[in-house]
Amino acid sequence: MNSSVSLDQLHAHLAQWGLRSFSSDADYFAWQRATLSAEDLNRLTAQVERKRSGARQDEMAFYDLTAEPHILPVLYSQRYEYFMEIGSRVLSRIAPAGTVLDFGCGVGILTTFYARHSPETQFVGIDRSPRSIAVAQSKATELGLTNVRFECLDVDVEVLRGSYDRIIATHALVQAEQDPGIPSRDWTTFERARDESQQAAFEQRIGIDVRLDQLSEMLSPGGWMVIFEKTRQLARRVPFQRALARRGLQVIELPELIRYRLVEEVSDDGPFYVMQQGSAGPLAWDEEPEPDAGVPFNRTMLRSVPHDPQDPDIPLYENHWPSAQRVWESLADRLVQQEETRRESDGRQLHVELGSAEGLVYLYCANTFDQRQLIVVEPNRRAELASYYGEILSS
Ligand SMILES: C[S@@+](CC[C@H](N)C(=O)[O-])C[C@H]1O[C@@H](n2cnc3c(N)ncnc32)[C@H](O)[C@@H]1O
């Protein structure tokens, strides 16, 4: 964070927006019930559902609704920790910029925070939700900010102009949260083919093609782009990063995954990217799966979970993470007894295999959306794995 700005100031800023931090979901829902009517909640639920369709009008209607004065504090408080995590990180990357664009600024909760604490910098916040922009502008006036202005503009259909030393896009570029991304070449690898038409289709589907084209054009020489979107799964992360790289962007900091609490869930989100245009520096784009919690296969300490005599179903070894692939590859004397590879209705390739290795019996399951599962049991439990093998294939 900007050395002179403390997290307390970010808390105070959020409080000025009427946001509250909650110690429990129950507290949150009590406040929500006391503040919003059943009709408000029905409208919100219906609008969230419509937003899922990905249609532009539905998305805009959702953000317009959330900007209503009595809804805004309650709804945006769900993201209190998000604002703390992102607000602090972005602010510390602003100085010494002269000009900053906050794309998809929403109601301007973070834009006004950055502007307050970087008085020498000129900020522009843009968003296509007219109500959000009206709220942002009126809050900036209320806070006496003269170094920020807001514009209502849809980057998908209107041309953006200007040159900025920092371009920020946090939870703004990628609205298509359900898009699975692109599959790996086949079930044996996490690698994605370099297929231009598949990449272009992905960018178009989730709407980042035009957005990134426009934003990257406006970055001033030596300027930084700071991006934080929901692109954590490898199948989304790889094509998203390739989209950034295609616009000449290179990471200048190690991308960071950020964990924060929402109401009723914890989000492992991001990565948080800080990038510059130009030739590749010492940091390369990472297309590997994240390090995971899968334990190594150690022949002498086979049970990855403590053996529980009350639960005889526990296998000798189990790994449900991408690292299961390395373990499966390293199994000695692997002998496949049954296997099937097929294409599922959603296009993914699925492979299931039952075999023996190291005097034990294993089941390995892998698909082209990076899911892996390896189970190893004693030879006398082969029938159990055989039945699981059948279950996977029939499901
Ligand atoms: C989840 S809000 C994020 C707000 C803010 N960036 C934050 O971090 O809290 C996403 C915003 O992006 C805006 N947005 C999405 N697509 C846009 C586009 N093509 N042009 C302008 N704004 C857009 C939406 O209207 C919405 O207000």
Q: Would you spell out the secondary-structure blueprint of this structure?
A:
Elements: H1 7-16, H2 25-35, H3 38-51, H4 56-66, H5 72-77, H6 80-91, E1 99-103, H7 109-117, E2 122-127, H8 130-142, E3 148-152, E4 164-170, H9 196-205, H10 208-217, E5 219-228, H11 234-246, E6 249-251, E7 256-262, E8 265-277, E9 317-319, H12 324-330, E10 335-343, E11 349-357, E12 360-367, E13 372-377, H13 382-394
Parallel strand pairs: 1-2, 1-4, 2-3, 4-5
Antiparallel strand pairs: 5-8, 6-8, 7-8, 9-13, 10-11, 11-12, 12-13
InterPro entries: Methyltranfer_dom, SAM-dependent_MTases_sf
Organism: Nitrospira lenta
Protein name: Methyltransferase domain-containing protein
Keywords for this entry:
395 residues, alpha/beta, Rossmann fold, 2 domains, 5-stranded antiparallel sheet, 13 strands, binds S-adenosylmethionine, SAM-dependent_MTases_sf, methyltransferase activity
